[in-house]
Amino acid sequence: MKLKASLALAFGLMAGMANAATELVIATVNNGHMIEMQKLSKNFEAANPDIKLKWVTLEEGVLRQRVTTDIATKGGQFDVMTIGMYETPIWGKKGWLQEIKPAAGYDVDDLLPAMRNGLSVDGKMYSVPFYGESSMLMYRKDLADKAGITVAANPTWADIKTLASKIHDPKNGVYGICLRGKPGWGDNMAFLSTLVNTFGGQWFDMSWKPQLESKPWKDAITFYVDLLKNYGPPGSSANSFNEILALYNEGKCGMWIDATIAASFITDPKQSKVADKVAFAQAPTMATPKGANWLWAWALGIPASTKKGDAAQKFVTWATSKDYIELVAKTNGWGAVPTGTRKSTYANPEFQKAAKFAAAEKAAIDSANPNDSTLPKSPYVGVQFAAIPEFQAIGIAVGQQMSSALAGKTSIDAALKASQNAADREMKKAGYYK
Question: What does UniProt give as the signal peptide span (predicted)?
Fold first, then answer.
């Protein structure tokens, strides 16, 4: 009996170990598309009965912190991580991520080139895009028509200033333009980096020296502060994506340059009072079209520390496949699919019908190039950020200075000088130069 009991126990332990070996722990962000992925993942488990999924769903800031700590310390808590275009090239280069090798039939060539390139290092993909975005101009066509102005498909910032001046009507609660002002590397600096790029500027020169007191930075920030002071809503220095989205949906913004994802909200009559009055164009340009519109993806990556690489590869390729997009469309309709990742989505007549912003969004994504986003040559990858570990701290410090300048608490020159000093200090500390 003892022998039988021992054998039973041994087999039980082995079975338990076998099950544990195929449990994938997935860290993800708590946005709508990801929550939908969790619901639909029962389809993956049904097709792969040897793999069980365990979800850790976190707020964006907490997610970044947890996955960064885990991967840097080789903690091994997660088998799949939701990461972005900022982390992927840095971690891929450090050898912290497994190369993604999708199975036959995945159709890698169907991925939008901008997304594929932004998530690759030396031609190897280190995460796959689940959802992608760029930035573009979203404007009130009714107000432009009333002012007798036709907005070009590729407007300049001079065109934008003219239109803002004509449609600005604060007495009737309409502001000519709404733009981000709230401090943060992913808040005001996401927008301002693209503005500086198109004015001919860059974050760092080829010697990694910060360029924050250069003429393009001064010209871009002066233009931005004047534009919002004259034609923006009061309190712009506290506004980021969510605050402006609320203003826009109330009919209070004549135009807005921001993430393409906003288009699906401002054209939804359930959310927006101006849903039928909105039109789209490319992000405005100034000295150069380079880097005028940003590029971002929420992507799925596999830490090099996982012992369950094969199962993880299976899952990330399922969740980012054409079949998955069709599954979402079948379940919730084409208006609910994750956008910004595949050519086939944009070629689909059902999607085009559900998303009147589709053509403008795809043109914006296609034109963004994280490997060539500035007029002078730059040593970094990224459009609205520099993909180096030090950038987060620098972006936060600069964002605070730009917000202060917009609020009139400091001069533009003083804000740029303080920004240059903060960036210089970080880069010296990190050993980029002495």
Answer: 1-20
Q: DSSP assignment of 219-232, as one string? A: HHHHHHHHHHHHHS
Tokens matching residue 361: 């969004």
Q: Are strands 23-29 and 52-58 parallel, antiparallel or unpaired?
A: parallel
Over residues 218-261, the pLDDT tens digits come to 999 999 999 999 999 999 999 998 899 999 999 999 999 999 98
Cβ count within 10 A of residue 400: 18
43 by Cβ neighbours in 10 Å (0-12 / 13-18 / 19+) ranks as middle
Residue 241's identity, in one-letter code, is: F
Residue 388: which residues within 8 A CB-CB, separation 6 or more?
90, 380
Going by their DSSP bridges, the two strands 124-125 and 120-121 should be labelled as antiparallel
Helix H or strand E segment including 397: helix 391-406
Domain CATH code at residue 389: 3.40.190.10
**Per-residue model confidence as pLDDT tens digits over 322-359:** 999 999 999 988 988 899 999 999 999 999 998 889 99
Interaxial angle between packed helices 87-94 and 60-72, expressed in degrees from 0 to 180 and rounded to the nearest 10: 10
Taking Cα atoms as reference points, which of 341, 343, 358, 345 lies closest to residue 129? 341
Other Cβ atoms within 10 Å of 390 Cβ, number: 16
pTM of the model: 0.85
Chain centroid to CA 59: 15
- Domains in the chain, number: 2
| 190 and 230 assigned to the same domain | yes
**Closest alpha carbon to 297 in 261, 323, 272, 346:** 261
Residue 3 has pLDDT above 70, yes or no: no
**Containing domain of residue 114, as a range?**
22-133+296-365
One domain, residues 61 and 101: yes
| Exposure string for 71-98, b = 16+ CB within 10 A, e = fewer | beeeeebbbbbbbbbbbbbbbbeeebbb
Residue 21 pLDDT level (bands cut at 50, 70, 90): low
Rounded to 5 degrees, what angle do the CA atoms 283, 293, 272 make? 60
